[in-house]
Amino acid sequence: MTRFLLSGLAACVLAACNSSDKTSLNKFSDPVIVRIADLQDRRSTDSLHSFFSHENAAYRKEAVLAFASIQDSASVDKVATVLLTDQDTAVRRAAAFALGQTRSSRSGNVLKDAVAKEKDNKVLEEIVEAYGKVTKQWTPPATDVKAGIAWSLYRAGLNNATGVSDNATAAALLNKNESERTRLGAAHFFARGAKNFDGLLEVIGNAATTDPSADVRMAAAAALRKIVSDSSLMVIEKILANEQDYRVRVNAIQAMRAFPFAKIKDHLLKALNEKNVNAGIAASEVIKATITEEFWIELANRASDLKNWRMQANLYEAIVKVKENKAVIDEIKNTYQRSGNPYQKAALLTALQQSMTSLDFIEAELLKADTPVVRSSAAAAIVELNRNKKFQPSMKQRFAGLYVKAMQTGDAAVIGSVAAALGDSTLGYRDVIKDPSFLTEAKQKLSLPRDNEALQPLEAAIAYFEKRKAPAVTNAFNHPIDWALVRSIPKDQRAVIHTSKGTITLRLLVEEAPGSVANFVALARQHYFDQKFFHRVVPNFVIQAGCNRGDGWGSEDYSIRSEFSPRRYTTGSVGMASAGKDTEGTQWFITHSPTPHLDGRYTIFAEVESGMEVVHHIGVGDQILSVEIESADAQKAK
To answer: What superfamily would CATH give domain 483-637?
Structure first.
């Protein structure tokens, strides 16, 4: 089969054809498309420019879309020329998307001017939305493509480029007569970027309680946190009384974070018993954020009875935050010592980050822990104690000595957490530590690309002590895409994730993210993901896995590049986790619901085809048993 494909590729090159071979598994049977994609992966901008004038529109589209991932401001004018002159609508849409991905004042000006010239509504929508991403001050585009305007507002709001006068425009787009896509963009604008819209409570409340789309209700419910009034709280109460979708309930619970604890306490305590545990966890997090001292005894009694360890740890932290009671602290430590669950132990150490009297205990656990997630959580707890309002300047010397010992562990996560504190000028460690050579010694224990995430704060800390600007921490090109593997992956390839909670089936998007899909397939075939844990679960946001340490700091000694496409994060999108652009490796996440703030920032390489009910019930510490890349025969049987 491989020989047949290769001979077909050679014939295709000779004929300058556009991959019409019916036996090809994906578009990368065309060697020209492989060439363009490889240039994208290598960030070879000049070579890509040469395809902008190719007679084949498919190649022009691939080449211009590459700049959505490269994001080269020096190429804006060339991409702009494609947008303004290309005769193919798909190419112009790709150019508009690429310009929106490239932050530059020139991008904003080009996109705004392009509105008047463009006649195709789909291209126009892309132009208008892209304009919202890059403009510094949003002004209504002269067009009536409502979905484009709604999402343009949302994108601009994320960058603080909208004003109060834009709220009325967005409110009108929440009308149920508008398309779901339009309403969703408007609802997310209010949830994320809009400010000072108290007078629109009726509009927001109606969307949160009556919109036929759960996605719209979710976003509108999240917006209620920005309207702190008895009337807004009544809307939240209505959601909790009537809403069936747990994700809308989670957002309503999280919206209560803006209210005084006395007003929301009963709702939050009741929510601890929600059917979906994510709602209860969300409630415990709001309790932690809003608690006041007079309620600590009531919460202490409730914490002791909780069966869910995440909720219990959050309540413990809430209590210690307002009352450093010895009996409660001893209960936390005893629970820690009894637990055989490293994730529970990590959460209990996090609870103690509110207790100055627990510093010695946390330090001891940091230095003796043999589990990465416990060790990294101990380090993070110590840093949080340093930032705690209870911290006294007289403690600084003690913490400085502790930080030196922590750095000497050589643990990347510990080094990263401690370096963030040492490099924070507001904490003032440059005045206390006279010999910072331990920082450069710690750096020698780390390497790129494996330790990029830890090296970023470490380089910043070293630069702070040396009174200079921190250098950028970037990975040199490594781990080129295995194009032979890519060509062997069908465009509808499925991967089956067997977990301790059930089975999740993914559809891999090899034509949109070839490097990421090939990476995932190769790791799965090596059984890399087997027995690894879901180390991060954020209610109504994501579940995350693929870390070789189990705490989110892990990576292998290679990295791959970001691959951004116009695909949006919806329910069940599978994205690559990263520590910044072009730092992806082995970690990935699955979304509980639409998360548009991730669009164009994290590679989407798959979608959940079945098993979302499993995704919604995965918790921290649940395990991947195996990942199976379905055979061609198994896929045909479906």
So the answer is: Cyclophilin-like (2.40.100.10)
